[in-house]
Amino acid sequence: MAEHAVVIGAGIVGAACAASLARLGHRVTVIEAGPVGGGATAAGMGHLVVMDDSPAQLALTSRSLELWAELAPRLPVAADYRTCGTLWVASDAEELAGILPKQAAYRTAGRAAGVLDAAELARIEPELRGGLCGGLRVPGDGVVYAPVAARFLLEHSGAALVRARVVNLAERKVRLDNGQTLAAEWVVVAGGAGASELLPDLPLRSRQGHLLITERGGPQVRHQLIELGYLKSAHASDADSVAFNVQPRPSGQLLIGSSRQFGRVSKEPDWPLLRRMLARAADYLPGLRRASALRIWTGQRSATPDHLPIIGPHPDRPGIYLALGHEGLGITAALGTAEVLAADLGGPASPLSAHDFGLRRFERQAVHA
Amino acid sequence: MPELVLTVEGQPLRVPAGISVLAALQGAAHWSLRRSLSGQRRGALCGMGTCFECRARVDGVLVRTCLIPVQPGMTVELLE
Amino acid sequence: MTALETDLLIIGAGPAGLSAALSAAQGGAAVLLADLGPGPGGQIWRGAKASDGGESGTLLRGVQRQPNITALYGAQVALSERGPQGGHAVQFSTPQGPRRVLAQKIILASGATERFLPFPGWTLPGVVGAGGLQAMVKSGLDVRGARVLVAGSGPLLLAVAAGMRAAGAEVVGVAEQASPTRLLGFGLAAQRGGKVGEAAKLLWALRGVPYWPATYPVEASGGERLTQVELGGLTRRTLECDWLAAGFGLVPDTRLAALFGCALEGGAVKVGAWQQTSQPGIYAAGELTGIGGVDKARLEGSMAGYTATGQVERLRDLPTQLEQARHFQASLSRSFALRPSLRTLPAAGTLICRCEDVPHAALQACPSWTEAKLQTRCGMGTCQGRVCGPAAETLYGWTFTGVRPPLLPLPLADLLGE
Q: In angstroms, what CA-CA distances link C167 with A127, A240, A358, B14?
């Protein structure tokens, strides 16, 4: 039976959810105060990457990449979808030792992953500095320009877009700042970092990141390059951290990341941290020093304590569903997230339903901790 | 007026001292300074450092030629 | 990278910046005066020398006599961060590499840029700004014997046409988009503002040059460069020419102020009665607070220079003089308001963003500047929206937002401070 669903947020996750619900035959209204795909969707890199931090993350990201590959032929050219692959780079013996288990994990998820020795690494990415130990090449990973993808998903879903801000969330009712109240069987909150204003009790924290895009004409790389120490530095602690993460854009520009910082809200760059981030990138890619910075910006990742998103019904709020807290993986995981959500709302079963993305898991984790 | 010599696209070019590199290029009929993304010819537009259309490599560095005075021995390479 | 330290950093060495430097230095403060051009003068006094007669020469001699003013030319602000002992650490790009300036207070005097409006063919080499062609000629472009058509809007057009004629060009005509009745209003205001002498001089210099009101370029064409221009509006004709100098008024250059977080209002930097911006210790003077010409710029510069250095006793009748200068300016913007039909000049395929080659048709579908940037890359290229931003404001009614550092493409080595 067709129901009315309201999706709050027209970022990549909200757009993907709207598209999935509309495909089930539901009537969908998307609420967005800002531009479509203008929040974390625009601030992020648009890296489509399989990550193996946990079995659930591996399942979600690898399934999502299958869904991206299915969607790709229909995406507009401006969505810049490419399967450039990810190259995980090992700089020392410890990181090199992590390659084989990582390769094994990817293979269990059905994702190809090839080990490279130092010479092969230098051959396929000659801009990398000498002295690196090797790498893991994941050819099915890719990149996408997410604001265009979000708009495409939204426009082709047939969902209605209402430009407004949600001021109140009640049972099966959404009140907007334009005075309108929408009744809906289901309300899906896909508001990224903004969701905390509507549901302050969610276990979300904003984690700021910096990105820099270069002008065309700098050094060229073929793969998205990440240091294998990425997860170590990304999730090790609450301290500010940087990691080498460089992406070739189809335009010939490079996106340079990454940094992680809790509790910083200023949109201005944190210059000392940015310099640390760039110094790390230039350490791996010395030619970057010759590249020109075109723009630098910051963005907020909405993170949960276990770095996995929250997907599914709100346990205490009937009719409210959550699709948020993706940290740095919202673009990668958007399509898998929408599949999990749709399975909850009358859609076909998802292979991901075997994993626990529900809000309740944090209570259980607290008990066991 | 004193003159000086610079090298533009490998050719020596004698120009009055004190003029901009852009004026030197225009004096040698280099009206088109770069190709746009879609391949169109582009020349200088604003003359004051705003539009970045007049960029060229001067002594290896990408600069806005309208902002740089000519110097003896300068080497200018067009992006075109 | 070693840092230069100063009490007061003044960014922009046009009439406002020079006046500010002189006023501030009189109180004994150490002043650093920076400009992206190769020398002082800004756009209006480009190439000015201390030996010149008139206001510019007097001001330059005054600035030269102050030992506590240091000048830094060829320097453009790339970024700014908090200084190690408070204040600001401003990084400049110069042809000699990056320079870092530590300043307690800052006066922004970044002036204005020209508004370019797109029409079919406007991207051809040979189609330039009106102020743009004037700047190129002052920097050494030889236009002797060249045919120049001047078009667009504003009092600048006449000055440019006269300048081109003086430089030996054949001015084939001046097309002003404003209607004759509005221009009459400007003439009356000029009389009241004591500008009759200037206007008479310009008209005499331009005797014999056709002047077409309510007329504007509708298409430029040529092969490798411009050969002809079609005019539309009140006077419709096609003219052969070598240069089309087209400028549709001036736009306050607010990017620098936006980088420092200063509040803007109506497209200009918002300032208080003493030229202070919304950011403590940062002042603004000249065209970036609202297009107003040399007199307003000089007065605001003096005011900012005195207030930034605590010399309030020297302000005297500056506020009254400023009031008059601003009043004249209000009539100027009414007289040269852009006619709505200019919005219909671009064809579907006419490029609006010259850096990323984004056509009009792609932008018409967008509801805002931010959405256009995200969906089409408009304004995301090398000039960062300096050209297409003001054009889009006129064409689509968008407000330009989102200035991001650095203010110009910056080598990563410079950013790293290596």
A: 51, 60, 76, 21
> How many CB atoms sit inside 10 A of residue B78's CB?
15
**C406/A268 Cβ within 8 A:** no
Shortest distance between the Cα of B13 and any Cα of chain C, in A, equals 15
Give A112→chain C minimum CA distance, Å.
33
Strand order in the sheet with A173-176: A166-170, A173-176, A181-183
Reduced to 3 states, what is the DSSP secondary structure of residue C355? coil
Instruction: Report, as an integer, the average pLDDT of A161-187.
Output: 94
pLDDT band at B80 (very low <50, low <70, confident <90, very high): confident
A295 in C contact zone (CB under 8 Å): yes
Range of the domain at B22: 3-77
Residue A249's Cα: distance from chain center in Å?
A: 17
Helix (H, G, I), strand (E, B) or coil at C64: helix
- Residue labelled with tokens 């310009």: C202
Partner residue facing C412 (CB), from A36, A293, A295: A293
Strands A186-189 and A320-324: parallel
pLDDT tens per residue, range C329-343: 777 778 899 999 999
Q: Tell me the C-alpha distance between A352 and A60, whole Å.
A: 7
Q: Is C127 in Cβ contact with B46 (below 8 Å)?
A: no
Task: Return the CATH number at B54.
Answer: 3.10.20.440
- Helices and strands: H and E segment counts in chain B: 1, 7
**Complex-level ipTM beyond the 0.95 threshold:** yes
Cis preceding-peptide flag for A258 (omega within 30 of 0): yes
Token reading at A163: 């430009």
For residue C373, give the nearest of C390, C395, C387, C389 by alpha carbon. Answer: C389
CA distances C414 to A287, A329, C98, C119, C264, Å, are 13, 32, 6, 38, 29
Q: Which CATH superfamily is A4-46+146-204+306-368 part of?
A: FAD/NAD(P)-binding domain (3.50.50.60)
Rounded to whole angstroms, how far apart are CA atoms A157 and A24? 10
Chain C residues within 8 A of B61 when measuring between CB atoms: 95
Digit-coded pLDDT (tens) for A217-253: 889 999 999 999 876 665 667 789 999 999 999 999 9
- Closest Cα in chain C, distance from residue A293 (Å): 5
**Using CA atoms, how far apart are residues A136 and C288, in angstroms rounded to an integer?**
53
Q: For chain C, which domains are there? A: 3-113+252-314 (3.50.50.60), 116-248 (3.50.50.60), 346-418 (no CATH)
- Counts for chain C of helices (H) and strands (E), in that order: 13, 22
**Chain A 189-248, CB below 8 Å of chain C: which residues?**
214-215
Phi-psi region of A47 (alpha: psi -120 to 50; beta: other; left: phi over 0): beta
User: Total structural domains in chain B?
Assistant: 1
- Cross-chain Cβ contact C225/B20 below 8 Å: no
**Neighbors of chain B by Cβ distance (3+ pairs < 8 Å):** C
Cα A233 from Cα C202, distance rounded (Å)? 67
| CA atoms of A182 and A154, how far apart (whole Å) | 19
Residue A252 phi/psi, 5-degree rounding, is 95, 0
Of A294, A293, A323, nearest to A311 by C-alpha is: A323
| Pair of tokens at residue C403 | 């200035």
Q: What is the pLDDT of residue A232?
A: 67
pLDDT of residue A3: 81
CA–CA distance, C197 with C397 (Å, rounded to integer): 37
